[in-house]
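Why do we care about 3D structure at all? Because function follows from shape, and shape follows, mostly, from sequence. That is the central idea of this module. The next example makes it concrete: a single protein chain, its amino acid sequence, and then its structure expressed as tokens.
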Amino acid sequence: MEKLTGLKKIKTAVFISGTGSNLNNIIKFSKTKKSPISINLIFSNTSKAKGLRYAEEFKIKKKIFNFENVNIAEKKILTLLEKQKIKFICLAGFMKILSKKFIKKFDGIIINIHPSLLPKYKGLNTHNRAIKNKDKFSGCTVHYVTEKLDSGIVILQKKIKIAAKDNSVSLAKKVLKLEHKLYPAAIKKIFT
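And the structure:
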């Protein structure tokens, strides 16, 4: 990846499906001098994603694509990415799996944040699984997106102790706080 010149920020798209707390955090980070990126596009696979409100709040272009036909949706997204000169994608709670074709066609970088210490607990229900297995630690991972689910090279990880009183809800809250620190740190690490 090219090193940041300090003049131009890298045009970035963020893909979301839910509340958008990581999106909000990445947008705020992108507005700082130390940030190597600017957020130029927000994609969602659902109009019900609460995180879309940040597009209005920060005046960022947003697009909603129905993923019933993945090929059509991804073709439209790729066209838009090219048109907007997007060079970097952050997945932030995006609940769709991008096709191998999409990942190969997008010649920039795609990263994702996952609420576990990968390679442990790929996929969903990470907090329940960690508690059920009586793990002493949980955490989050920012990794490169590859064709295999949650299997790309780890950029950064951060761990947190699981307290005896923790349940999946309390653990999720603790891990989310970590995510908000880790995602910007991982972006900085990539570009500096």
